[in-house]
């Protein structure tokens, strides 16, 4: 069975709420090329597909990994969590500092819920440019300390503490402690 590049591109574009013109503008290609690819009237070069996926943003690996196989999956081992750390760096322009990892449980888009296992080494920071996105998020600190800024509110949370807020309010996460901080969080709709 061959991979349906056009169908997959259209599915992803629509899921992101983008028109063909929007995606073309974001990726620096013509909307005609996107139309031809989606209709399977032309096969994109690797360079063209990479450029188009950059406008989403999405890696080639993510594009060719059909998430539908994860939709019915119920249980996940640690090695099956999807590393989204690079997506955070993409959305905040690479301003995150220190070692932090964000690993997602399953197919967030299929469930309209993103569950993350987050790890912040001492000094890790999502960046001085505050994050903002159209979601709601919350989480529980499992170990360590995490300074969370939401608008003009700032608090250092420790193991057992939790947070919940409207993600449209500018926010930031920083490990101000001396040990690794582990958080389990949820975001709906999915952000990364």
Automatic annotation (TrEMBL):
Q: Which SUPFAM superfamilies match?
A: lambda repressor-like DNA-binding domains, RmlC-like cupins
The entry lists its GO molecular-function terms as: DNA binding; DNA-binding transcription factor activity
The answer to keyword DNA-binding applying to this record is yes
One Pfam family per UniProt: HTH_3
Q: Which residues form the HTH cro/C1-type domain?
A: 9-63
**What PROSITE patterns does the database record attribute to this sequence?**
HTH_CROC1
An annotated GO cellular component of this protein is: cytosol
Q: What keywords sit in the KW lines?
A: DNA-binding
- Keyword DNA-binding part of the UniProt annotation: yes
Q: Which PANTHER family match?
A: HTH-TYPE TRANSCRIPTIONAL REGULATOR, HTH-TYPE TRANSCRIPTIONAL REGULATOR PUUR
What is the protein name given in its UniProt record?
Cupin domain-containing protein
């Amino acid at each position: 069975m061959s991979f349906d590049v056009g169908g997959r591109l259209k599915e992803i574009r629509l899921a992101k709420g983008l028109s063909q013109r929007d995606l073309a503008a974001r990726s620096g290609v013509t909307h005609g090329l996107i139309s031809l690819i989606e209709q399977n009237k032309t096969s994109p070069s690797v360079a063209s597909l990479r450029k188009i996926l950059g406008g989403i943003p999405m890696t080639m690996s993510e594009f060719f990994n059909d998430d539908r196989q994860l939709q019915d999956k119920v249980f996940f081992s640690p090695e099956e969590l999807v590393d989204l750390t690079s997506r955070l760096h993409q959305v905040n322009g690479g301003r995150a500092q220190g070692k932090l990892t964000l690993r997602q449980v399953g197919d967030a888009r299929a469930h309209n819920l993103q569950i993350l296992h987050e790890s912040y080494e001492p000094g890790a920071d999502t960046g001085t440019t505050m994050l903002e996105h159209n979601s709601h998020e919350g989480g529980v600190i499992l170990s360590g300390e995490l300074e969370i800024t939401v608008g003009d509110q700032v608090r250092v949370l420790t193991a057992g503490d939790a947070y919940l807020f409207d993600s449209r309010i500018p926010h930031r996460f920083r490990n101000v402690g001396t040990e690794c901080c582990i958080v389990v969080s949820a975001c709906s709709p999915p952000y990364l």
